[in-house]
Specification:
Blueprint: H1 13-28, E1 32-42, E2 47-50, E3 53-57, E4 60-63, E5 68-75, E6 82-88, H2 98-105, E7 109-119, H3 125-146
Parallel strand pairs: 1-7
Antiparallel strand pairs: 1-4, 2-3, 2-5, 5-6
Length: 148
Amino acid sequence: MNPGVSSNKICSPRVLARILTLGLLLCAGSGCVSRRLVIRSDPPGALVELDGRQVGQTPFSTDFTYYGTREVKLSMPGYETLTVQQPIRTPWYQVFPLEFVSDNLLPFRVTDRRDFMYRLQRRNEALDEQDQLLQRARGFRSQSQVGP
């Protein structure tokens, strides 16, 4: 053993701090799960409400954080409004405790993209005319009940 060299040099606080900093930098730049929800409709251009909030028109895409059931509501003039309780299942690599590894420690990015396609049904024009007639009749009824 060399008299001028200390055996504690390898574990000195400076060396440990550098190793920890390097390890944190490597972990910070690695591993990440990107979740993307894509909603399409036939015909395109339908108004999208996601969980009760108007969010845009189809084709629509957004990032999401949590898995589970989402309420998707599509509406468009001349078409029946479509409301769907859409389940989004959790993939195997996002189940505890594997989620910690996939979210933080993988050396690459994982993209979980969920595409949903909905077909809107044309509204029956005869029903539209009936609805308009009923609306007008209700309006006349309410006006007559108010009086002069």
